[in-house]
Design brief:
It is a single chain. The chain is mostly helical. It has twelve helices and no strands. The protein has one domain.
Length: 249
């Protein structure tokens, strides 16, 4: 049942013009970034020799998918549950044999399968460098892992935001706000050591950058998994709350 719901969500995204527009815009943006990175790599031999082509081009191209997804994920996730609430079809879904957890997992897997296409675009472009330069496939693997985990965490946040309101636009705005806040906590300096350390602990760059550099630390992997599990858990609680209140509001 989870697989069926996930497939339905995935197909729904490709049946809507928005799904194709987001993919096209993302691919265009990532293509432009990739070309710019290649040109910068060729113009700066010193940096190229120090960092290598894999980091200078491939890893940074994969990182760019995280920035592009910052706008893409709120748009494609905003209707996941809010649309069901707005159209009053959520009670029908909740009356099926699916539990709240199964509904959340099905919708999450569907949107994640779509969202993972964004870093895959960058990965395919990076692999096009084979034959023209020496690639570090270990670094390429960790960079890909970091980008995929980041975007899957985005998707979990988007799903939760969609469950909290009947308005897709409000869901998109709240999702974008949370994502930006988690990117910007690295520039937060209060002068209070414990608070500054906490802000660093919950920032995306703090956990993504080591993976982009080929450093696999389980603490960084656990951070992304924690964010995913946390927001999926909050989504389940929200659906249970709606179920207890009659399914809609």
């Amino acid at each position: 049942m989870i697989r069926t719901l996930a497939a339905m969500e995935w197909k729904r995204l490709f049946r809507s013009p928005l799904g194709w527009v987001v993919l096209a815009a993302a691919q265009l943006g990532q293509g432009l970034v990739f070309v710019q990175l290649v040109e910068t790599y060729q113009r700066n031999p010193a940096a190229a020799a120090h960092n290598g082509a894999t980091y200078q081009v491939a890893s940074l191209a994969l990182a760019s998918s995280g920035y592009i997804a910052l706008l893409a994920i709120p748009l494609i996730s905003m209707r996941l549950i809010s649309e069901e609430r707005r159209l009053h079809s959520l009670p029908l879904l909740q009356s099926s044999p699916l539990s709240s957890l199964q509904i959340v997992l099905g919708k999450y897997l569907g949107i994640s399968a779509y969202a993972i296409l964004l870093p895959l675009f960058s990965l395919v472009m990076a692999l096009s460098l084979i034959g023209s330069t020496q690639l570090d496939f270990g670094l390429l693997a960790t960079s890909s892992l970091g980008s995929i985990l980041l975007i899957c965490a985005y998707a979990a946040i988007g799903l939760f935001c969609s469950s909290t309101t009947r308005s897709p636009s409000l869901a998109a705005i709240s999702c974008l706000t949370i994502l930006i806040l988690l990117w910007s906590t690295t520039v937060f300096h209060s002068g209070i050591r414990q608070l500054d350390k906490l802000m660093q602990l919950i920032s995306w760059p703090e956990h993504l950058q080591p993976l982009l550099q080929g450093v696999v630390d389980t603490r960084n992997l656990f951070f992304f998994l924690f964010v995913i599990i946390l927001f999926l858990g909050l989504s389940v609680l929200q659906l249970e709350n709606l179920r207890n209140r009659g399914g809609g509001d």
